[in-house]
Amino acid sequence: MALDLLHSAETPFYWVGAFTTTSFLLWLLYKLITGIRIWVIGNGDLLSPKLGKWAVVTGATDGIGKSYAEELARRGFALMLISRSQERLDDVSQSLKSMYKVETKTIAVDFGGADIYPKIEAGLEGLEIGVLVNNVGISYSYPEFYLNIPDLENFITTMINVNITSVCHMTRLVLPRMVQRSKGVILNISSASGMYPVPLLTVYSASKAFVDFFSRGLHTEYKCKGIIIQSVLPFFVATKMTKIRKPTLDKPTPDRYVAAEVQTVGLEDQTNGYFPHAFMGWWSAVFAPIQLVLYLGARMNKAQRGGYLRRRKLR
Ligand SMILES: NC(=O)c1ccc[n+]([C@@H]2O[C@H](COP(=O)([O-])OP(=O)(O)OC[C@H]3O[C@@H](n4cnc5c(N)ncnc54)[C@H](OP(=O)(O)O)[C@@H]3O)[C@@H](O)[C@H]2O)c1
Fold it and tell me: What is the largest CA-CA distance in the chain?
């Protein structure tokens, strides 16, 4: 009797198994093909001055922003560089002009303030802008519990202005003319810290989650008008912000990171931008439960906080 039952179930089991295996193999093939398309073939010359003569980069004098400025100049864009220090802007501007023979302009503003946008609007007037890189961002000087953050009131205002307000207002200034011309690319530099809450870097992490949501929502609103808005979520990159001096495969130089990231534009709306980072993002999303991510993040940041406070006491 039991044997008969088993025999009659054999055929359905066979087909369920065959269907599951085929679906899995097709999914794997699809992942392989899209992976090759993104990480090996890339998007060709999508990021070119055909989008518009000018590229605008915020936070353009160091780290990831400076690398975007160089990459876009190498691709033939004229560059509008925006950062705080006029001296450093002049240095980057000179080096782009002499290396890539492109036109450059600069605007010196502090994104920590909210009253700077009329000055930026005046500086951008009349420019045909093909690419905007909303890169400027600040983090904590060391991981800290929310109520222990030094000068908390100012800290909150400054971080929100630099990391969030800048992205909204720069987009407000640039997007209308992109929409008129039915083309343009906006790259918003969020962070892998925006993929999950990061304890002791809570305000930074939340501000980067804002940038990610803002970008993905806006992309859906404007893609039918020919505009690409991409959310970029890097893990660690060796810059002044992270104080990483020795780049490694998973903590690349900003040049290496940006060279990989620009190939993903138009292929991914939300990207970790660099293959080892994409692997880390995929692995943590699939295998790491959120409670574990929160626990490990808190543990790592408490250890860093302890180290920082001990070193500061010793000095
Ligand atoms: N590095 C990483 O591992 C990493 C990972 C994930 C996401 N990100 C994001 O990537 C972006 C760039 O980070 P980064 O590591 O390249 O930073 P960085 O090396 O510290 O460079 C920051 C740039 O922004 C400018 N800047 C800073 N504060 C400013 C302000 N208040 N007003 C105007 N300009 C200002 C700086 O120039 P001046 O000081 O001359 O103004 C500099 O050009 C940020 O949004 C960051 O959150 C970085």
Answer: 88
- Round to whole Å and give the CA distance between 211 and 172: 14
Q: Number of folded domains in the chain?
A: 1
Regarding the beta carbon of 284 and ligand 1, being less than 6 Å apart is answered no
- Rounded to the nearest 10 degrees, the angle between the axes of helix 152-160 and helix 202-222 is 20
112 Cβ below 6 A of ligand 1:
yes
Do the beta carbons of residue 216 and residue 202 sit within 8 Å?
Answer: no
- Paired tokens of 31: 């992942």
Question: Can you give the residue range of the structural domain that contains 273?
Answer: 54-314
Contact 304, 144 (CB under 8 A): no
How far does the centroid of ligand 1 lie from the alpha carbon of residue 189, in Å?
10
pTM: 0.94
Which residues participate in catalysis according to the annotation? 204
pLDDT tens column, 57-85: 999 999 999 999 999 999 999 999 999 99
